[in-house]
Amino acid sequence: MNQTPPLVLVIAGSDSGGGAGIQADLKTMLALGVHGMTVISAVTAQNSVGVQGYWELPPEAVLAQLDSVLGDMGAQAIKTGMLASAEIVRTVSGRLSNVEAPVVVDPVAVSKSGDMLLSVGTLEAVKSELLPLATVVTPNLLEAELLTGMAVTDEEGMLAAARQIASCGPRWVLVKGGHLLGNPVDLLFGDGHVIRMAGHRIASPHTHGTGCTLASAIASQLAMGADVPAAVESAREYVRGAIEGGFPLGAGIGPVDHGWRIRQPVS
Fold this sequence. Notes:
With 267 residues, the chain is an alpha/beta fold. Helices cover 36% and strands 20% of the residues. The protein has a single domain (7-244), classed as 3-Layer(aba) Sandwich (UDP-N-acetylmuramoyl-L-alanine:D-glutamate ligase), CATH 3.40.1190. The protein has helices spanning 21-32, 59-72, 86-96, 122-130, 141-148, 155-166, 210-223, 228-244, and strands at 7-15, 35-47, 50-56, 77-80, 103-105, 136-137, 172-175, 185-190, 193-198. It has a 9-stranded mixed β-sheet, sandwiched between helices. The relative contact order is 0.16.
């Protein structure tokens, strides 16, 4: 009998363009050798130039999906992405409060093209209801600013934001510095440690789905037994390759390449 791979459940919105959201999550999980399962919280009309609209699913539909998957198959890790509304956040948080698997929270608020993806009050619900359940939360600079109310423009600000976000309850906070001037730096804060993770700027405009991909890669590594610092570093390595392989699609920002490893020439 074939062995079942580690199971990762993602709770997020759908991206009709295929580069971010649930679609990016599943591609990442397949590439990293885990079995991805989904709870869809919202449907977007989205392409390379922006988000033309989004529609939340009823909270009871979100809860039914959660009960269906967790009640039968379980999960070794869980990742949340776009949760769209405070009511959906509360529904998800209430169900996950009884789950022991590590939870990766990607506090998705704004799309790559700058479109807001949350209704009023959702971020406050994320802070009060979801972050206390998080093993690691992965805000970019804008999301860190929205969660803290402070300007985050340099490493000092990233660390201050990480400390404030950590006060909401997550075990670890990864503030992503991809939008810093110069070479990017990520800061991982938690468990009494500040871990500075430096990188180099990759000259590619095709970065759609980067945040979803990183959070899903972290969840995949946690499901396979890695601790948080190791999971983050491994996920960053995978995302670096995906950004380097990003390709043009449509008239705007193309996606990262989730399948870059299988497209590498065999030596």
